[in-house]
Amino acid sequence: MYLSVVAPVYNEHDNLPLLYEAVKNALRDIRDWEFILVDDGSVDGSMDVLKEIANADPEHVKVVCLRRNFGQTAAIAAGVDHASGEIIVLMDADLQNDPVDIPRMVAKIEEGYDLVSGWRKNRQDNAMRRIPSQIANRLICAVTGVTLHDYGCTLKAYRREVITGFRLYGEMHRFIPAFANSVGAKIVEMPVTHHPRKFGKANYGMERTLKVILDLFTVKFLSSYSSKPIYLFGGTGLALSGISALVLLFLAVRRIFWGVSVMESPLFQMSTMIFILGFQSILMGLIAELLVRAYYESQDKKTYHVRKLINLDPKKENENSGSHP
Question: Which domain holds residue 153?
């Protein structure tokens, strides 16, 4: 399969027939494609519509029905797991993403990029959705170091090996560019069309911004310190120990030159507690290092990712790595 288009579906009964027709028309010049629709526990009859579409076009339409509502990230993960395309495109099912943009994104992938991220330059949402999204985008860019205008845009195209090399949890589908960047993926952003919602209502509110901020801590740790956690825990421990040493030096100087008692000052207890916390942090870093080694070695995972091989057998590389290149 050349191209897989994956769309999570939750209560999009009225949008689905129009979505299917739009995707089919947009991909009419693509040689080999499939459209994977993942019903994420819809309660409005969306599954009945999906069955009708799948029965009418079994060659292209594939449906995954989840047992209950697991959330957008889990639905995307299910779609990706069942996709067989060399290129995987993710999009929303609410008709706000325009399938017309998909061939242009595929063309960018063929130019040599690993990930093409959509940018809703003229976003057709109200200010209550745009402003929190803009704040979240700037925060994510600052923390991850991957500069994109629109992390929240689901419409993205990926080479298969970029999106299948890790698992998605929480609300982490929006952080895929950060994970891809950590393994050396070539990323480009392109403006895409964004339409106002015609039917139904948005399924996400302001609480999603809080989830994004919490997930961001996990993303930063996994992308920067997952293979060397001692840098985080040990660095924190050394910083705390340094602060403790400076406080003790201050107390010693004050005792020598001004005769102020060290033991009676609350700074002494504070510096002692800070030193203990620093020492514990270093020990946690060492334990984390042991866990990381157990993780990689027990599953025969490599600490590197290969872009391509010349005069070498890629199958052998996959067998040796025990994971996706």
Answer: 3-225
